[in-house]
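Dear support,

Our group has been running a series of protein-ligand predictions, and this particular one with NAP is the one our PI (initials K.S.) wants archived with full inputs and outputs. We had some confusion internally about which version of the output was final, so please treat the block below as the authoritative record. The input we submitted was:
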Amino acid sequence: MSGKTPIFYIGATGYIGGSVLAKLLKHPSADTFDITALVRSEDKAAKLNKLGVRTVIGSYKDVALVERLSEAAHVVFSMADADDLPMVQAILKGLKQRHAKLGDLPILIHTSGTGVLTHGQETKGMAATDVIYDDSDFEQIANIKPEALHRNVDNAIFEADKDGYCRTYIILPSTIYGIAQNHLVDAGIQNPYSIQIPMVIKASLGRGRAGMVGKGLALWPNVHIEDVSDLYIILYDAIVTKGTEGVDHGIRGYYFGENGEHAWGDISRAVGQAMVALGLATEAEPTAFTDEELEKYFGSVETGNYWGTNSRARANHSRALGWKPKYTTQDMLASIKPEVEAILKQQK
Ligand SMILES: NC(=O)c1ccc[n+]([C@@H]2O[C@H](COP(=O)([O-])OP(=O)(O)OC[C@H]3O[C@@H](n4cnc5c(N)ncnc54)[C@H](OP(=O)(O)O)[C@@H]3O)[C@@H](O)[C@H]2O)c1
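Confirmed final output from the archive:
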């Protein structure tokens, strides 16, 4: 034993995972971390090795590998996929074995998403709804339906914590925005781009005018990539400082990443304004995507209609950890033009 904390990291090359890993590598206790990342690219693995991160080449679909690497870790950061149940089951199996063999109480920090709050709030953009979830309202959180998005995975994690062989904490980012800027991006290791806003931009560029689902009235929370990656560090530090029992875990361990709310139409309007400013459209006002466009740009009508769901969240639990997000919805709207420009550059 090196005396260091063994950490198993899944998603090191991703938008969220890379941004959090960049902060872990600059953490005041970084020299006490022994990080092993599961990555698919040999090239990125070599770059991570140079930063002091051990790597194993492989996929999280290889559940035997995930189980073995999880068993070897006191802390697992699950940053790659909010919906892959077999991967999470393999992590939990590994942690269970570790607990049985060593008596250690390992820690899982998993990434879910506020998509879990959209269940029953699907209005295809035609209306805002008034159900607002508060991550410090444990009864409200416990009552989220098992059929909600991500919840099957989250429920498996709650069960593991209840069984007592590990302690689990789940961060639920909302619409994350901003192009990540850190030394992992500079080294060509991580993806610097988010998902939801870039998809609206790509669809809008594709059709030559900003688009939205329905009337764009549905509401979602948003958070800047810098702020949400800070939340992981603040949560980790709280667990280390206060001990696993000093921080709410299991079914009480839901932490939203949210610092403001937007109507999807406002995002589309900002995309439209950027398109007009860049000479790519004559009208800034967005129009509704047709079903054919949803299929073309989002993969299916059902997937596209996700941009017309409501997810309303207040991150009081996260803030109670001492998290102080800096960026607001105004910053999110201001981030859209640079995002459009970055996408245009990629498409050249
Ligand atoms: N971005 C958001 O706004 C947001 C908000 C809430 C929740 N989430 C959820 O958070 C999760 C991560 O999102 P993200 O934005 O960080 O996505 P991302 O940038 O696409 O990152 C995904 C990460 O998972 C890795 N990965 C994918 N398949 C893998 C496999 N089979 N084996 C090993 N690694 C694999 C990728 O590695 P490669 O480099 O090899 O592809 C990458 O490191 C997703 O489930 C997403 O839905 C995202």
